[in-house]
Amino acid sequence: MNASIIFSPVSFGKLVLKNRLVRSATWEGMATEEGGLITDTLLGLVEGLAKGGCGLIITSHAYVCRDGQASRRQMGAWGEVCRPGLARLASTAHAHSTPIALQINHGGLLSDASPPDLPRLGPSAVNSIEALGATGVVGGGTELGKAEIASLCRAFATAAGMAKDAGFDAVQMHCAHSYLLSQFLCPHVNRRTDEYGGSIANRARFPLEALRAVRGAVGEDYPLLVKINCSDFIPDGITLEDAVEVCSMMDEAGVDGIEISGGSRFGPRIPYPAGKTPMGDNEGYYRDAAELYKTRVGTPLILVGGFRSPAGVSGVLERGLADAVSFSRPFIREPDFPARWQAGELTALACVSCNICAKKARIHGNIHCAAGQPK
Ligand SMILES: Cc1cc2nc3c(=O)[nH]c(=O)nc-3n(C[C@H](O)[C@H](O)[C@H](O)COP(=O)(O)O)c2cc1C
């Protein structure tokens, strides 16, 4: 194993990372209940990550409109009131010389935590119970009109502009995990017959329009990242072929980095599957997707999901399957593992992917590792 590759620098456009270890976006349930404003608890979590030696922190998903809030106590980037807290978050990371990207999102049909009187917007008027099965929120979805699509592009752009002004080093658009932009890519919920539905070029139209709007707001040189599913793992979800095609389109549209994920709340394979992950040569859920991506797309790739050991991470980097590797659950348990690895303590991560962190946080907020505790 060659651990030095993990601690070599890498660039995503103008964003330079000191190492290849990225904290993937993780909702923490630590923002204020009303408005998603930044709290001292959240600043403390980011400080721990920043001190812990990772190359880049990607924040939790932050909602760009009040009708797009997906989770309780989720961060907001929906208005001016959010700006001072966001600026404090960015400077907290910078105090420890760690770059930070703001992930921007709209929950679409999965806006479970937005005010109940607001519509659940989506590509088609799919009832979320129909989309999700028994686990879904109650209520029908509202099909977006073209003027509303244009207005949502502006909302993403405004949030991105605010992130830049607040001092973030990059923004990441959330096009994965069955939220609004990913819903457009997914035939299961995108049943439109206009130019936003049908072929993959049509289904990608809104995500690409949003991307161009964001690019227009932040300027040509500002680092712009995207997170996208390689597969929804449902029979009528986005396929790997389609996903790679969308990545090529985003490459052409000038994105600086793409993070490949997978899984959907519209099916049994969620984005953070529970249970022991393979280690070493077979580590990482989406290695096959990365392999295809690398033959077709030039944009540098961040690969997320199931990475737990220095050998697994360095193997993927050495084989050129990814330019950086990102982690969510391991950072909840060990925010300082990059510093530990860099100091030569190259042991596997302690996270056992039990998902008790997520289950408890959904009830109480304030995510933390609760491995070994009752579910
Ligand atoms: C509690 C929890 C919250 C998450 N929140 C987000 C999020 O806000 N945005 C996002 O893109 N992914 C989110 N994810 C998915 C992770 O970023 C990651 O893609 C997934 O957990 C697989 O990586 P891992 O095996 O390293 O945990 C979340 C995962 C967990 C467990």
From the spread of the alpha carbons, the general shape counts as globular
- Give a count of the beta strands, DSSP E runs of length 2 or more: 12
| Distinct helical segment count | 13
Structural class based on helices, strands and sheet pairing: alpha/beta
Rg over CA atoms, rounded to whole Å, is 19 Å
Q: Describe the strand arrangement of the main beta sheet, using strand numbers.
A: 3-4-5-8-9-10-11-12
Query: What hetero molecules are in the model?
Result: flavin mononucleotide
CATH architecture classification name:
Alpha-Beta Barrel
Helical content (DSSP H or I, runs of 4+): 25-40%
Distance between the termini: 36 Å
Low-confidence stretches: 134-138
CATH classification class: Alpha Beta
CATH topology: TIM Barrel
Instruction: Tell me the domain tally.
Output: 1
Order of helices and strands: EEEHEHEEHEHEHHHEHEHEHEHHH
Q: CATH superfamily membership, which one?
A: Aldolase class I
Please summarize the sheet with the most strands: 8 strands, parallel, barrel
3D architecture notes:
The chain has 375 residues and is α/β, with parallel strands linked by helices. About 1% of the residues have low confidence. Strand 1 and strand 2 form a beta hairpin. The chain has 13 helices and twelve strands. The longest helix is centred in the middle third of the chain and has 20 residues. It has a single domain, classed as TIM Barrel (Alpha-Beta Barrel). Flavin mononucleotide (FMN) binds next to strand 4, helix 11 and helix 13.
